[in-house]
Specification:
With 375 residues, the protein is of the alpha/beta class. It contains 15 helices and 14 strands. The two termini are 15 Å apart. Bound molecules: 2'-deoxy-thymidine-beta-L-rhamnose.
């Protein structure tokens, strides 16, 4: 069975992060032949350092990676065609899809949202010119959605690392990080955020030692402004009880390991947000900002699911922190509340992860959707 996945990199790394992960999983766990069409190989190379950004065709982890250039060359159409995040397929490709005796299954893989309407729209068809149909496939956290990307061995691999202090130290050493005794480890991946200074002040004056690890990215300018100095990958700085260290942007698998090693992860967008949930540690989500504040509904919708089972005090602390981060103010007070509810939030993150892991993963759900469509 042949699958084509089309990815247009709009900005950031979420589009390529999700499609690259999905393509690998379809090959490794479902034995499918997958072509991944990507318009921006330079962005892709950040997450996949072995990628040659100049090659029109190459194989990576069993996936045939194709540069999706502006000039489309005719190719054979696959049995399943995924357009990620409503990127528009080349007209010539759609014409060949329509001309096939048996048309392919055409899916639009949508952005992640925990909002109620998602389950109602997941799997709905939409008629297209040429007699084709396109189906909307929505990731999600609840029954009736397409689930979340989760590789088969992921949680076992995470458990092994989290149970092995030596392996964690060896992994961190590879990044140039030495964990200090009794220090809490926090990773920071976020968009620009005016609320960061308040959080950094709180960490610097906190009673616990904190090691803050910051991969290259958009938040770094705010970190450097607060420090008043640069923090290139490998560089370290200390302010009070806060130790900061710049890290390179790493391959996806290493970023997972970093999340698993940390006590708390600040993440953003879509894919890192899910990966932090699989780390089973408390997290902080910097949601991708949308026009007219539409992202606040998404944030509330997720919190409405995630908060279930928390005590009133831990719930209030969580909501306060996430809202402060996304409103870009009030982080110092909010962080104090989170510290007071730390143990409960940690146990809750484990529980949430187990609940979500009990649901079918997104790649398997896609394969099942195709089977159902064929029968
Ligand atoms: O890069 P993002 O901000 O992407 C966003 C979201 O997808 C959002 O939904 C979308 O609308 C917007 O782009 C256009 O955040 P995200 O989704 O977390 O993607 C980051 C990817 O980068 C993810 O796959 C993890 C990966 N990553 C690494 O591989 N190495 C690293 O060192 C880091 C920090 C991240």
């Amino acid at each position: 069975m042949k699958w084509d996945i089309f990815c247009a990199v709009v900005d950031n790394y979420g589009d390529i992060g999700v499609t690259w992960r999905l393509a690998r999983q379809l090959v490794a766990e479902h034995g499918l032949a997958v072509r991944l069409w990507v318009d921006d190989l330079d962005a892709f190379a950040h997450l996949c350092p072995s990628l040659d950004p100049h090659a029109a065709v190459q194989e990576q982890a069993g996936v045939e990676v194709r540069h999706w250039s502006g000039v489309w060359q005719p190719v054979e159409v696959a049995d399943v065609v995924i357009e990620a995040f409503a990127c528009t397929l080349p007209d010539a490709y759609v014409e060949v899809m329509a001309a096939r005796t048996v048309p392919p299954l055409w899916l639009n893989l949508e952005y992640l949202s925990a909002e109620d309407w998602v389950a109602g729209c997941h799997g709905l068809p939409s008629p297209q010119p040429g007699g084709l149909q396109k189906f909307f496939f929505f990731p999600g956290f609840v029954e009736g959605t397409g689930g979340l990307l989760r590789e088969a061995g992921l949680l076992a691999e995470r458990d092994a690392l989290q149970a092995d202090v030596g392996a964690q130290a060896a992994f961190l050493a590879r990044l140039g990080v030495v964990r200090q005794p009794q220090a809490q480890l926090i990773s920071l991946f976020a968009y620009e955020n005016a609320g960061l200074a308040g959080w950094l002040e709180a960490l610097a004056s906190g009673y616990k030692t904190t090691q803050l690890l910051i991969p290259q990215g958009r938040i770094l300018a705010d970190v450097q402004a607060w420090l008043g100095t640069s923090l290139a990958p490998g560089e370290r700085c200390q302010r009070g009880n806060l130790h900061l260290q710049g890290l390179p942007f790493m391959a996806q698998a290493d970023y997972d390991r970093l999340l698993w090693c940390c006590d708390f992860n600040a993440v953003r967008g879509e894919d890192s947000f899910i990966r932090a949930q699989w780390a089973a540690r408390p997290l902080l989500w910097h949601i991708y900002r949308q026009e007219e504040g539409a992202h606040w509904d998404k944030l509330d919708a997720f919190l409405a699911l995630y908060h279930q089972g928390l005590s009133a005090s831990a719930d209030a602390a969580l909501q306060q922190l996430w809202k402060a981060w996304n409103a870009e103010q009030g982080m110092a007070e909010a962080w104090g509340e989170v510290q007071r509810n730390w143990q409960e939030l940690r146990e809750h993150a484990e529980r949430w992860c187990s609940q979500q892991a009990a649901r079918p993963d997104l790649a398997s759900a896609l394969v099942q959707f195709h089977r159902n469509w064929l029968s």
